[in-house]
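Blinded run. Sample ID left blank on purpose so nobody reads anything into the name before looking at the predicted structure. Input follows.
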Amino acid sequence: MRLRYHRLAAVALAATAIVSAGCSDGSKDPARDFGPYPSERIDDDYDDRPSRARGILVESLRLGEHLVYADEIDSALTVGRGGGVIANHTGVASMISGPQRSALDGYPVLGAFGAIAADRDYGGEQTETMLSISLIALPDEQTAAAAAAAMARADFETNADNVPVAVDAYPTALSHWRPGVPTIGSWLTWKSVVIRIYARIPEPNLERLVEMATQAYRAQLANLESFTPTPEAELPSLRLDPDNLLPRLVKTGDYIPDDRDFAVYSPRTFALLVGKPTEALAAYSTHGITAIGVSHNKFLFRLADPARADEAVEYLASGDEQLEYVPMSGVSGLEGVTCYRAQQPSTMQKEARRFRCLIARGDAVARVFSNQESDVRQLAAAQYAALGDER
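Blinded prediction complete.
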């Protein structure tokens, strides 16, 4: 999804002079090849002006911080099937059915985040257990209740064989299933937030489906206890990047807040986007990663302890088994840069992924990608210099 509010920003092309203990560290070398990339930090006002679109993105990320992990409900649900921010200024844009999205037309959605998990990788739909949970923020409790009812009704009416189901532990939940089909849909409100659950199991066992919904609600409601919804009037003033992490990444595109191209995630929220969320979250904690910035084809991992950068680099270098990256020569003269080549093309992502470099400097490790070997080294050199610009 794309949250777009267009503006032009100038791109400065200048090499950054970094001096440590009176000696050059390599990024000062005037012969350093940065290619087309700026080698200094470029700030912008993407967080300064009021923006409802940016506020919806930030509120969605705040909801993601409180979304329950599926394996907290069923220990077998360890495989992430995707998810993330699912709302923009037009409403909920993905992860729920078309009839449910249409039912939300006219309701002012302030944010939404969802995730899907299963007990196996794709390919075994008929025998898998799967759970999808979405959180959708509305302006107030009354609006949330009306939106939940509209979504439940729209989904119920898609098939004449659907029948209502009671979830006894949560009598206000609106639920239904189709006899003989091993799925259940359910909607419940908590304050001004709609909790939407969709579950599938191998066999059409209604008792087990209801128990799964019950456990999901119990865990999700517990996670929401520490969440404070943002009032609608305050939404445009929410800041995406209060610590100014994103300008520390080389500027390769517009500074337009967007969940995929320009955003800052907490480790817990970012881990929900990967294949093994709980494992990823544990690794982020182990290696002291406190925030992740995403800027187009670059990622910034902020560290609690700069002295542990080498550990973080080793972890991040081993984190993509699908492409089977192998080491290649890095950037001459820069020991903080390591580069890798994928042994096979990516079948899951359209973004450039053939070559990547990891750049460690100070309290951050950056990861950059390109489909050209010379280009990724230029980008890595520029990124190393930009991380040293501590203005």
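Unblinding after everyone has recorded impressions. Residues 240-388 form one domain.
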